[in-house]
Amino acid sequence: MILKSILNIFKESKNHFEGEETTEEVVLLIRRHPFFIIVRLVFFTILILIPIAVGIVFSSFLHANNLLSLFLFVSSVWYLFIWSGIFYALTMYTLDVWIVTDRRIIDSTQHGFFNRTISELHITRIQDISVQTEGVVQTFLKFGNLQIQTAGTEEKFKFSQIPNPTKVKDEIMKLSSAKI
Amino acid sequence: MDYMNLISIKLVFYAAILLVLLGYWVFNFTILYHLARFGIGTQPKKIAAIFFLGLICLFFASTVLFAGLDLNSLKDQLSGLLKLFFNTTYSL
Fold this sequence. Notes:
The complex is a heterodimer.
Chain A: H1 2-8, E1 26-31, H2 34-57, H3 59-64, H4 68-95, E2 97-101, E3 104-112, E4 115-122, E5 126-132, H5 135-141, E6 143-150, E7 157-163, H6 165-179
Helix pairs in contact in A: 2-4
Chain B: H1 9-38, H2 43-67, H3 71-86
């Protein structure tokens, strides 16, 4: 029973967030395009390969000087730190979200563990939405920036490097039209 | 009483290891906490579970490898290694 309820958090957890109003419904949960996390993961993959390469190149030297056990221990510590580094990057990627509900848009930007910015915009205040796709990579991988102009002289609300920005724009416009 | 006599190199070494371990686990706990507490949807929870399982496996492997180290000969090995890298004479 307890195990079942623990396992349910991997299946049944809805897109609820802190400060959600009652009867508020999450329409879109947007993160940056996976391209950005993949680039970081490639960098970590190179770091993973370093001890393997060193082990292959210096294998005879390590055996001759009786340093194999020390090398294996140092490598394991290296992998421990890389593992944490990978998941730190994944954490920052996962927590950097834009939430579009039927009432408002929330931009939650994670700058580090204890540094987060949360901005909010009500759907009714949307005046204009623009989509920007720049360069070959963004065009081929279908991601770009989306900017929302609000009423008055306030700053623009920006979704950076999100996948399918045109579809997101259409969805937000649909929600905005339904509210007016 | 001379407190300096109580502090040996071995004690400083173990204290340093404990300090690094403490910092490392606090850092990992913070990752897990953020994923479980602030993550929206099921994806962060899955990432947290994979992270935790991998961490346990890697930490166990590191502990086993550390136990396999001969700490008495470690000093000689390290000094030999330093001598090899910094006292080598090159000839063209």
